Amino acid sequence: MAELQLKSVVKTYGNGFKAVHGIDLDVHEGEFMVLVGPSGCAKSTTLRMIAGLETITGGEVRIGNRVVNDLVPGKRGIAMVFQNYALYPHMKVRRNLGFGLQLRGTPKDQINAATNEVSGVLEIEELLDRLPKQLSGGQAQRVALGRALIKQPEVFLFDEPLSNLDAKLRASMRVRITDLHKRLREEGRPATVVYVTHDQVEAMTMGDRICVMKDGYIMQVADPETLYERPANAFVAGFIGMPEMNLFPAVLTRDGDLPQLTAGGQTIAIAEGLAHRIQTGNGPVTFGIRPQQLHVVAPGSEGAFTATISHVEFMGHEVNLHARLGDAQLVAVVPSDRFEKRFARGESVGLRPAGSHVHLFDADTGENVSLATAAH
Amino acid sequence: MANISEVNVRAAAIPPTEIEVKLRRQRRISSTLRYSLLTIVGLIMIYPLIWMIGASFKTNAEMFSSAGFWPKEPTLQGYIDGWKTSTPYTFGHFFLNSLWIVIPKVIGTAISCTLVAYGFARFEFPGKKILFATVIATLLLPNVVTRIPQYLLFRELGWLDSFLPLWVPSAFAGDAFFVFMVIQFLRAIPRDMEEAARVDGATTIQTLLYIVVPMLAPAIISVCLFQFMWTMNDFLGPLIYISSVEHYPVSLALKLSIDTTEAFNWNQILAMSVLTLTPSLIVFFMAQKYFIEGISSGGVKG
C-alpha cells in the first residue's frame, strides 16, 4: 500500500478544452478518499489520469515514491472497478478474476489459491464457473471488486461502481466495500482507495475524507463532518446535505457588535453564535442555513424571517416546508412529531435560523467568511 | 380464483357474436391471402435453383424438353462425366485450387481487417481522418477502375498466373468493406473491457488478442463468410490473373466446360454448378447464427 499524490495536475484535451486546472491532492496510505461532484466536474477524468487511461497534460502523479506519469496502467500498481463492471464477457468468472495475475506470469496454483481466497471474501465461490452474462448486477459488481482485490494493488480506484445498481443493492454494496476496507486495515494491509461518485450519500458514508470538485477545480478536501459543518464555500455548502442548504442573497450590517441580515426586505439580528466568526465587513453576502437549522416559529418572532408557505412535503418522519422570502425559496425541515399544526399554502410562518449554524459566503467568490479559522 | 375460472367458463360458453365471427373470418381470409402470395413469390424466386438441382440429374436429351424440375429418368451421369472434365484434371483438382485461393485469402482478410479496424476504432494518430477517408473512398470506387493499374503492378512483380494477386491485397486489408464493417462493430462495443485489461497489465496486442478478438467474433465470422462466398464465386479475379488451366478455380473450370465443348453437355455443367454451390451453402448454414449476429449488430449502435 502506498500514498498517492497529485501535484498541479492538468488535463487539456486535443480540442483545447481544459478539463482539470492544476489540482493538488494527497491521499494518505490506507485512506478512503472520495472524489465527488456534479457531472462534468472532471472527477472521472482525474481518476482516469491516476489510472493511466488518460494522458496527463501537466503536473505529476505519484504512487508511493514513484512518479507514474509515463507508466502504462499495468505498471502503476493500481486496480480499478468500473461503473459497468467491464467484466470480460467471454471469460468465466474464475478467469476474469485471474486474468491480471495470469498476464503477470503468476504460476497457476498461486492464481487458483488467490482466486479461492478472494471469492471466499466476496462470497462468489458458487459463481466461479459462470459467464458474466449469467450474473446479476450485484454479483457482477462483486466479481469486478474481486478482480481488483486479487491483484493486491497499491491503490484501488473506483469509478462510480454502484451507479448501475438499484437503491437497495447499492446500500448493501456500500457497507460491503467499507467493511472490506476496514477489514484490510485491521489485517495490517491497509488499502489506499480513490472512489469517484456523484452521490453525496456514498461520499458521506464511505469516505475517510472527501474531495469535492467542480469544473476541474478542487473546492474542498475534508472529512465528512468538516465538510458538512464547515463548508469552505457556497458550492460545497449547497452540494453536501439533503435537502440542500438554503442559500440566498442578503445584506450584512452591524448594530454595534450584533450582526444583522437583511433579505427579502426583512432585517433580523442574529444574537448568538455568529458575531465572533464573521471575517468580512458590512455589505452583500450569501446567507446559508441548512433546512434542519431553520426553526419554525410564530410569524413576526424575534430573530426570524416571516415567509409565505408555498409547498409542504410530508416525508414520514419529517416534513419539508417550502416557503418564499422575497425572491428566495427556503426549505425548513421540521420533525413530524413537532409538526402539530397543519400549515396551509399561502400562510405566513416565522423561520428562525439557528445562529451557530448560519454561514455567510462572499457574494462574489462564494468563499465562506464565517469560519472562525481560515478555510481549508 | 373461483371467480376468475367462473368468468372464463362463462366466457367460453357464450356463443361468439355475429361481429366476432365476421372479424375472425376476415382475419383468416387475409392471412391465407398473405401467405399464399408470399409462398408463390418465394417459389418463383427459388425455382431456378430447384430446377438446376433437378436438371443436374436429367439426361442431356431431357433437359429442355420440359420445364418441370423432376427428372423422368434420374441419372448420375452428369456428375460422373462432369467430374472427369474435358481437361487432364478432375473437377476435384479445381476444387482444391479454389480452396487454395479461398482459405489463405479468408485468413489474411480476417487478420488484416481486424488489425486495421482496431487501429482506426481505438487509437488516435496523426492523419487518421485522411487515412480513414481514403479507406472509405476505396470502398466507393468501382473495382473495375483499379483493375488495369493492379494488373500492370502485378505483372511488373511477376505474379501473373499465381495466386499472389488474389491473396496479397486481402492480406493487407485491401477489402475496405470488411474494414468498415469491423470498425462499425467495434464502435458499438464499450471500451471499458479493454481499459480493464490495460489496468490488468495487458499490452496492446494482448488486449487485442484476449479481449477484443473474442468480442469481435461474430463480426469476424461474418467477414470470413462473406469473403469465403465472394471468393468462391469470384470469376473476374481468377480470369484476369490466372492463365494456366492447372491453376483454375471452380468458377473458371465451369466456364471451361462451356468453352471447350461444341455441343454443351448441360447436365454436366449443371451438376458441377450444384457441387460448386455446396461449400458456400454448407459454410453459410453452419455459421448462420454468428453471421446474422455479425451483420445485424454491426450497423446498429448499442
UniProtKB/TrEMBL annotation, chain A:
The ABC transporter domain covers which part of the protein?
4-240
Q: Where is the signal peptide?
A: none
Q: What are the alphabetically sorted keywords of the record?
A: ATP-binding, Nucleotide-binding, Transport
Any one GO MF term held by the record is: ATP hydrolysis activity
> Sorted alphabetically, which PROSITE patterns does this protein's record hold?
ABC_TRANSPORTER_1, ABC_TRANSPORTER_2
- Determine the domain of life of the protein's source: Bacteria
Q: Which family does it belong to?
A: Belongs to the ABC transporter superfamily.
Output the NCBIfam families linked to this UniProt entry: PRK11650.1
Its protein name is Carbohydrate ABC transporter ATP-binding protein, CUT1 family
| Lineage, broadest ranks | Bacteria, Pseudomonadati, Pseudomonadota, Alphaproteobacteria, Rhodobacterales
From TrEMBL, chain B:
Classification via PROSITE patterns: ABC_TM1 (PS50928)
What does the entry give for GO biological process?
transmembrane transport
Any coiled-coil regions, as ranges: none
User: Which cellular compartments is it found in?
Assistant: Cell membrane
Q: Which SUPFAM superfamilies match?
A: MetI-like (SSF161098)
| Cellular component terms per the entry's GO annotation | plasma membrane
For this UniProt record, the keywords arranged alphabetically read as follows: Cell membrane, Membrane, Transmembrane, Transmembrane helix, Transport
Q: Show the stretches that span the lipid bilayer.
A: 32-54, 94-118, 130-154, 166-186, 207-230, 269-287
Indicate the segments forming the ABC transmembrane type-1 domain, all copies.
95-287
Lineage top rank: taxon: Bacteria
Q: How does it sit in the membrane?
A: Multi-pass membrane protein
Task: Please state the protein's primary subcellular location.
Answer: membrane
One matching Pfam family is BPD_transp_1
Family as reported in the entry's similarity comment: Belongs to the binding-protein-dependent transport system permease family.
The name this protein carries in UniProt is Carbohydrate ABC transporter membrane protein 2, CUT1 family
- Source organism (scientific name): Tropicimonas sediminicola
Write the lineage as a comma-separated list. Bacteria, Pseudomonadati, Pseudomonadota, Alphaproteobacteria, Rhodobacterales
